[in-house]
Amino acid sequence: MRIFIITGISGSGKSVALNALEDAGYDCVDNLPVDFIQDLVQSLDSQGREKLAIAVDARRGHSIKELPEIIEQLKKDNDVRVLFLNASTETLVQRYSETRRRHPLSKSDDNRAPQVALIDAIEKDRALLSELAETAHNIDTSHIKAHTLRSWIQDLLKDERPGLTMLFESFGFKHGVPRDADLVFDVRCLPNPHYDPTLRALTGNDPEVANFLREHPEVQAMGDDIRRFIETWLPKYQADRRSYLTIAIGCTGGQHRSVYLSNCLFDYFLKRTQATGDAALHLLKRHRELDSNPSKII
Question: Measured between alpha carbons, how far is 165 from 168 in angstroms, rounded to an integer?
Fold first, then answer.
């Protein structure tokens, strides 16, 4: 059975992710008590159901601490993937202010103080879920819209084979480092096409920008160094039985240099995988800033 466990900080987009999985044919359950997960899996399995998505969050209190052990038990007989959605505190505060929703952990345990501050509720949320965040595939939704998250979920669903999925993600440092990154490479020291008026409005997907960057030896050298680092340590990540490895390449705005180098690295490892026939390594690519601004996608 293919099982997606969706968890994460309240307000980070779990309902959007669950809807995307429902559209993909998964049986979906929201806010299921942790103690019922194994019973639900057994029941659906006996009915011949093949796909299940369960959203679990900190509303279940300290019982969420039991979830890692339950996941390990489920993995013995099922293909289980855990997706953890996160966002910056500033973003979450803004979202709750815009929707006027109350945070599910805003009720105090002390009857004399029936409400806790929003920021305190968010930090309590993080504390309860910290163990899950360390072992799951993380997606930082701070700077992406709902339609972008749906698209990223659909990309994950395209490749549900066992093995390691290596994801190359470009981003802009001025918008923050992605919380979902396992490895981060800073390429802001490279020549910047932004200062060429003819290239400023283009992106690293455009041949004009690619040609500009290709002409600078330091760009090639940076790409080669990152490639060698990944090739050296990739077997260790695969031996660690990870499901995902997110490699984030960052420049200032996430439009030119990081996009170009992410494309180059993705293309290189795609050809390498095809040449070696490595069925245990799967590749994905996304451009955080461009995906969030469709007008810039070529």
Answer: 10
Low-confidence ranges of the chain (pLDDT < 50): 294-298
| Cα gap 263→205, rounded to integer Å | 8
Residues contacting residue 273 through CB under 8 Å, at least 6 positions apart: 281, 283
Distance (Å, whole) CA 24 – CA 59: 26
CATH number at residue 8: 3.40.50.300
Contact, 145 vs 15, CB < 8 A?
no
| Pair 181, 292 in one domain | yes
Give the three-state DSSP class for 235.
helix
Q: What's the CA dihedral at 40, 44, 50, 53 to 10 degrees? A: -30
* DSSP 8-state class, residue 102: P
**Is the entire prediction scored with pTM above 0.90?**
no
The Cα–Cα gap between 20 and 8 comes to 16
- The structure tokens listed for 145 are 């819209």
Q: Which of 82, 87, 73 is nearest to 41 (CA)?
A: 73
| Helix %, strand %, coil % of the chain (to 5) | 50, 20, 30
Q: Mark which of 158, 185, 212 sits at the end of a domain.
A: 158
Instruction: Determine the structural domain holding residue 200 and report its residue range.
Output: 164-296
pLDDT at 133: 83
251 forms bridges with which residues in the sheet? 172
Within 10 angstroms of residue 297's Cβ, the number of other Cβ atoms is: 11
